[in-house]
Specification:
The chain is of the alpha+beta class. It folds into two domains: about 15-85, Winged helix-like DNA-binding domain superfamily/Winged helix DNA-binding domain (Arc Repressor Mutant, subunit A, Orthogonal Bundle); about 90-270, GAF domain (Beta-Lactamase, 2-Layer Sandwich). It has helices spanning about 15-30, 40-45, 50-60, 80-85, 90-105, 150-160, 160-170, 175-190, 235-255; strands spanning about 35, 65, 75, 110-120, 125-130, 145, 195-200, 205-210, 220-225, 270. The strands form two sheets. Strands 4, 5, 6, 7, 8, 9 and 10 form a seven-stranded mixed sheet that branches. A three-stranded antiparallel sheet has the order 1-3-2. A hairpin with a 5-residue loop joins strand 8 (about 205-210) and strand 9.
């Protein structure tokens, strides 16, 4: 199950709201590879600008974040780095991705599979599995803030608070189409647990499943894409269930002791007959 927080990064009835907001800002910095601008931090968690400015000053004074005087962007400070004895969620996903994607390509009907990391504001393709006969889809390293055109974006949009959703809508090229189809797509997600795009945006079929952390928060999506021949109507539910199973496998791999140890990163794997 995917759980969410209030738009300002605070859990309902929190006994220490300021502390939780400050930790939420640090979490955003970690998810954005250790660096972000003030507006990005505010939009990612929906924290009021004045509150965010006060919290960032406290974190700066304590050495948990630093501010680049030239660019004005914030970075992880030395004290936060000292606490980070294990890889970030993005790094743990990458360490676990190779073997999972290699197996998933076969299980998903020899379709292309993607692993997209979610930093609370943008989706980044961090790993990919390709069968020799499947379509290429998006490249590793590509980043998008437009959540309206892709089924993984719908899963990510679903987790956002009110102010975050408003910001996400402003970034959509096809906003009207997204808003028209959102009730239908949301109902499908809630009934199936995964998202499915049947030629709504592109001449291909795509299925996406959420990857959640131990607290039930969405951190990534697994996606399979192909033509109607490789994802026929009769196999949509089957491939969706496979993606959900592998999403759980990926989460377990991240949480295992081996998942926090240095290993070989396979950002793109190829499968041949």
């Amino acid at each position: 199950m995917i759980t969410g927080q209030a738009a300002d990064g605070q859990t309902k009835n929190s006994p220490a709201p300021a502390l939780e907001r400050g930790l939420a800002l640090l979490e955003v910095l970690v998810r954005m590879n250790g660096e972000a601008g003030f507006k990005e931090l505010v939009h990612a968690r929906g924290i009021p600008r004045a509150s965010a400015a006060r919290l960032l000053k406290v974190l700066r004074d304590a050495g948990y974040v630093v501010r680049d005087p030239r660019t004005g962007r914030y970075r992880i400070g030395a004290r936060t780095s000292m606490l980070a004895s294990t890889p970030s969620p993005r790094e743990r996903l990458l360490l676990a991705a190779g073997p999972v994607l290699r197996s998933l390509v076969r299980a998903a009907g020899n379709n292309t599979v993607l692993l997209l990391f979610w930093n609370g504001m943008r989706a980044e393709c961090i790993a990919k599995g390709v069968h020799e006969n499947s379509m290429m889809m998006r490249p590793v390293g590509s980043v998008t803030g437009d959540l309206g055109r892709h089924p993984w974006g719908w899963l990510m949009y679903r987790t956002l608070g009110r102010s975050e959703r408003a910001a996400a809508l402003r970034r959509m090229e096809q906003r009207r189409q997204f808003e028209k189809l959102w009730p239908k797509n949301l109902a499908y997600i809630e009934s199936h647990g995964f998202a499915y795009d049947d030629y709504q945006s592109f001449p291909r079929r795509r299925i996406a499943a959420p990857v959640c952390d131990s607290r039930g928060r969405l951190i990534a999506c697994l996606c399979a894409g192909g033509a109607a021949e490789s994802i026929p109507d009769r196999r949509v539910d089957e491939i969706g269930a496979v993606l959900l199973d592998y999403a759980a496998t990926l989460r377990a791999a991240m949480e295992s002791p081996a998942g926090s140890s240095p290993g070989v990163v396979e950002a793109e794997v190829h499968v041949y007959d």
